[in-house]
Structures are given as C-alpha cells and as structure tokens.
Amino acid sequence: MQEAMSNTQSTEGGGAQPFGFLTGTRLPIPTGGPVLSIDLAGALRLMQHEQRWSGNRNAMILIKHRDLRLVLSALRAGARLAQHNVRGTVLLQVLKGKIRVGFLDAVLEASAGEVVSLDANLGHEVKALEDAVLLIAIAWPEGSRLTPATPPSQAEDPFWDWRADESVWN
Fold first, then answer.
1. Contact by Cβ (8 Å): 89, 119
2. Residue 56, class by beta-carbon neighbours within 10 Å (0-12 exposed, 13-18 middle, 19+ buried)?
3. Residue 137: which of 43, 41, 68 has the closest Cα?
4. CA distances (Å), 139 to each of 20, 27, 103, 136, 148, in order?
C-alpha cells in the first residue's frame, strides 16, 4: 500500500505542524501525489507570521496537479488583486473576512463561509474589504496545456510577486 503524502510534521507534543513552522521559514512541502493531507490552520499560521509578504498579500500553493491548483491566500484589508483572467474555472472560498469581486460590470461581496465560482477566462479583480483568508481552487479542462502568464513589469506594479498573483497559475 502506498503511503499518503502529507505537508505536516509531527512535533514532540504529538500535534502536526506544517513544514517550516518550527523554524519560521517556509520549507518545500509536497504539493502533488495520489493523496495529500493538508493542515490549513497550520499553513495559515506560518503564512501570517512570515516576513515574506508581498505588500498586503501572501500565498502558498498547497496542491499542484496538472489540472488543479489549490492556493491558500491571505490578504490584509485593502489588498487588491488587479483585473486578470485565468484559463481555468476558479473557486474562491472565503475562510475569514470579507472580499469584493469585480467582474464584467458587476461586483459581488463574499464573507467567511461563502464561495464564489468564476468561469474560465472571466476577467475579474479581488479586493479585501477587511483582513481575509481565501482558499482558491483553479481547475483546467482535461488535456489543457498550462503555460505561465506573462508577469507585469516592475514599472506597472512595483509590489508584484508571483506567489500572490493568480495569473501565473494559468
């Protein structure tokens, strides 16, 4: 029987912590495999305490398969993901806080416990109305070829960071 992959490590007290939690440094974690076990609360604790924030955003890829990405993203109040589109279907699950999603000529607000689904290639932007935590899933149709999007230039956005920009997950 094949052992399940986990992105947690045992501590002396018996509790599981995400890799790197004890050192405060984000270490590589398994993001692929037939079965993964993810400690969302532990990953969020690590993200919130690390120095690696890009402006008001931080993100961690939890699952990276050929046809699926699962990303934990933390946004401070006022943080914004500029208008962009993703080649796959996007689910934004708000775990904490409140966000505003702008698309077409409409806006939608979502709070903790709510999920927003966006069709593939639907241009949208996200703004944190208060400190927020999102679990973002992106799914591509079978057989899609994933290629990185072109990042904005430093002049367009001096705070751009690939970890917090979902357009690079295309």
1. yes
2. middle
3. 68
4. 28, 25, 19, 10, 15
User: pLDDT by residue (tens digit) across 44-53?
Assistant: 888 888 777 7
Number of Cβ within a 10 Å radius of residue 150: 9
pTM of the model: 0.71
Cβ atoms of 62 and 38 closer than 8 Å: yes
Sign of the torsion angle spanned by Cα atoms 145, 69, 107, 47:
negative
**Percent composition of the chain: helix, strand, coil (DSSP 3-state, to 5):** 10, 40, 50
**Per CATH, domain 54-169 is 2.60.120.10:** yes
Give 130-146 pLDDT, tens digit per residue.
999 999 999 987 766 55
Q: What is the DSSP letter of 26?
A: P
Q: Output the DSSP codes for 44-100.
A: HHHHHH-S--BTTEEEEEEEEETTEEEEEEEE-TT-EEEEE--SSEEEEEEEESEEE
86 backbone dihedrals φ, ψ, rounded to 5°: -125, 140
